[in-house]
Design brief:
This protein has about 450 residues and is of the alpha+beta class. It has helices at about 1-10, 15-60, 70-75, 80-110, 120-125, 135-145, 150-165, 220-225, 320-345, 345-355, 360-370, 375-390, 390-395, 405, 410-415, 425-450, and strands at about 180-185, 190, 200-205, 230-240, 265-270, 270-275, 285, 295-300. It folds into 3 domains: about 20-45; about 70-155 and about 310-450, MetI-like (MetI-like fold), CATH 1.10.3720.10; about 180-305, Immunoglobulin-like (Sandwich), CATH 2.60.40. The chain has 16 helices and 8 strands. Helix 5 (about 120-125) packs antiparallel against helix 9 (about 320-345) and helix 10 packs antiparallel against helix 11. The longest helix is centred in the first third of the chain and has 42 residues, at about 15-60.
């Protein structure tokens, strides 16, 4: 009896068929899930994990990959002036671009709610996102062209400048050597021989194409043949060039055109005593001059180079110019995401503030922005991650001579590794550094997503 009880107490209970079936179903589910995830894991390992590990190992070797040099490549990052400039430019990008994009997106998202065609406006603002960075780079490379005939920005700048400031009509004009005009250090031309009232002077210039002459230009022959009154100083400024050849240098030949609109000064003892402007036939005259000797001067303003606008892609402005192109592409993205967050705000809080007499600015600053803080943070951090790896725009927009002035970590990594540097050890170190800089922002973003869920 006792042995039977002990045997029965030591015997395990019979398995529960329902529990066993449930365990088998869970195992089959895990196996099926693993089979579905396996291709993605293999792809992730081949395209992400393996390149990261290989780059980490490669960064510890020299350019040829044959000698182990430890952390020398990482030390070289902080010794190379070009790489330091890339770090500085990357810092500028990280500080400026996300802040401006988040601010612009917030302002536009709030303003769009006030207009009737909000959907159409959002569509127009979001359209640049459909343009590839390559195409956007080409577009802005042309827009930033320094030639006003090609670059639309400089065309606008030159048009505004010329509206409020006079420009020279003869930036390429010059005097022939040995023809009686001496060029000063400031670019002006002065007659070598003194003149006096009652005389007539012919001042010949070259370097102006006939097609570039102002409209209304008339032949200078008649004006050159006129005699001056005893108390009058006359002259003519003309283009000393005869179409088709022929003519004599230093003399006004038939068909040679006058140069209208030029400023001519009468100078005595180094001081300007009179000033006038040439007519359509290039003629000028001074009246009421005291007797004595004078010199005629064509001031440097007659030959000032035409205003060509701003050097957008020069060493000073190339980084802000590229950031401007980036803003054009990503402002719509920022606006749409912030607008989605704005649409979820409790309207009763906004209406209650308006009823209490709060102004729109107070509502925006004290209610809208605090409630949108989670959305603004996500947008900002996402843009920081995106900005750190910007490459296409920098490589395409920046001309070759200023490529170093515009370089960022991503473009410097490519240039060092494949763009002529052929130092894949240093390039791998730059890639690892870029990864280390991106990881904190990625971790922060993932944690925010998890908390929001």
């Amino acid at each position: 009896m006792t042995a039977t009880l002990v045997k029965e107490a030591g015997t395990p209970p019979p398995p529960d068929p329902a529990a066993e079936h449930s365990r088998r179903a869970r195992r089959r589910g895990r196996t099926a899930a693993l089979l579905f995830v396996l291709p993605a894991l293999l792809l992730l390992g081949a395209l992400v994990v393996y390149p990261v590990l290989y780059s980490l190992g490669r960064s510890l070797f020299d350019a040829a990959g044959s000698s182990f040099i430890g952390v020398d490549n990482y030390a070289e990052i902080f010794r190379d002036p070009v790489t330091l400039k890339a770090l500085r430019n990357t810092a500028i990008w990280v500080v400026v671009a996300p802040v401006m994009l988040t601010g612009l997106g917030l302002i536009l998202a709030v303003l769009v709610e006030k207009i009737r065609w909000a959907t159409a406006f959002k569509l127009l603002m979001f359209m640049p996102m459909a343009v590839s960075f390559l195409a956007a780079g080409i577009i802005f490379r042309l827009a930033y062209d320094e030639d006003p005939d090609k670059g639309v920005l400089n065309a606008a700048v030159v048009a505004v400048h010329d509206t409020f400031s006079d420009t020279s009509s003869y930036p390429t004009a010059r005097a022939r050597e040995g023809q009686g005009l001496t060029q000063g250090q400031d670019g002006s031309y002065t007659t070598e021989q003194a003149v006096s009232p009652g005389s007539t002077s012919a001042l010949g210039l070259v370097g102006v194409l006939p097609r570039d002459l102002p409209e209304g230009s008339a032949p200078a022959g008649t004006a050159a043949a006129e005699s001056a009154a005893p108390d009058e100083l006359r002259g003519v400024v003309y283009l000393d060039f005869t179409a088709g050849g022929g003519g004599q240098q230093g003399q006004v030949d038939d068909g040679e055109s006058g140069l209208p609109g030029l400023t001519v000064e009468a100078v005595r003892d180094g001081s300007t005593v009179a000033r006038t402007t040439t007519g359509d036939d290039g003629s000028f005259r001074f009246t009421g001059l005291d007797s004595g000797s004078y010199q005629l001067r064509l001031p440097e303003s007659n030959f000032a180079a035409a205003y060509d606008g701003i050097s957008w892609l020069g060493p000073t402005l190339v980084t802000p110019a590229i950031i401007g192109a980036y803003l054009w592409i990503w402002t719509g993205f920022s606006m749409v995401l912030i607008g989605a967050g704005l649409s979820t705000l409790p309207r009763d809080a906004l209406e209650a503030a308006r009823i209490d007499g709060a102004s729109e600015w107070q509502i925006f600053r004290k209610i809208t922005v605090p409630l949108l803080a989670p959305t603004l943070t996500v947008v900002f951090v996402t843009l920081v991650i995106n900005v750190m790896k910007v490459f296409d725009l920098v490589y395409i927009i920046a001309p070759g001579p200023v490529q170093e002035d515009a370089t960022v970590l991503a473009s410097q990594m490519w240039l060092v590794s494949f763009g002529g540097g052929n130092d894949q050890g240093l390039g791998s170190a730059l890639g690892v550094l870029l990864l280390l800089l991106v990881i904190p922002a990625m971790v922060f973003n993932v944690r925010r997503f998890r908390r929001s869920q």
